[in-house]
Design a protein that fits this description.
The protein has a domain of about 80 residues: Orthogonal Bundle (Rna Polymerase Sigma Factor, Chain: A), CATH 1.10.1740. It is globular and about 50 Å long. By secondary structure, it is mainly α.
């Protein structure tokens, strides 16, 4: 792997990947850490990737999966003193924090591929064809897993709201 190629990839896609990570993680420091991890992984795998297919789909998939794993593992969901919450979480009575926690609980119920499909489709607004291309799976698989995700999510949220 050439160092120049990695530098070029970072200059070209670093901001895009940071925005992706920030959108999923919601914190600048966490997004910066995730972006760095994504490019470390690119450095490790660049020699094995096919450049003619482009690095971006791989980088984007790694960024999405890494951030979802951070959320799943609960690394950012520790209970915090309300005084340390971001101003927006305090101003809305902690609703944003509660929503983020519910989302993390929901995502933990699915496998990595299904989580990625849901985020790319529902958060990023990608079409099924775009999701299939980024994840390198069939459009049919995207549709099937997205349908199951939506159905199970609706039941989970209904149960969570009923318990509240």
């Amino acid at each position: 792997m050439e160092e120049q190629t990695l530098d070029e990839a970072y200059r070209r896609w670093g901001r895009l990947i940071f925005r992706r990570c920030f959108k999923l993680l919601g914190e600048t420091a966490a997004a910066e850490d995730a972006t760095q991890e994504v490019f470390v992984r690119l450095m490790r795998h660049m020699g094995r990737l096919e450049p003619e297919g482009g690095y971006l789909p791989w980088i984007y998939r790694v960024a999405t999966n890494h951030c979802l794993n951070v959320l799943r593992d609960g690394a950012r969901l520790e209970v915090r003193d309300p005084a340390t919450l971001p101003e927006t979480a305090v101003s809305d009575g902690g609703a944003a924090f509660a929503e983020r926690e519910l989302t993390a609980q929901l995502l933990r119920r699915f496998d990595e591929e299904t989580r990625a499909i849901a985020v790319l489709s529902l958060v990023d607004g990608m079409s099924r064809d775009e999701v299939a291309e980024v994840l390198q799976i069939s459009r049919k698989t995207v549709g099937r897993k997205l349908g199951k995700f939506i159905e199970r999510s609706q039941r989970f949220v209904a149960r969570a709201e009923g318990a509240a």
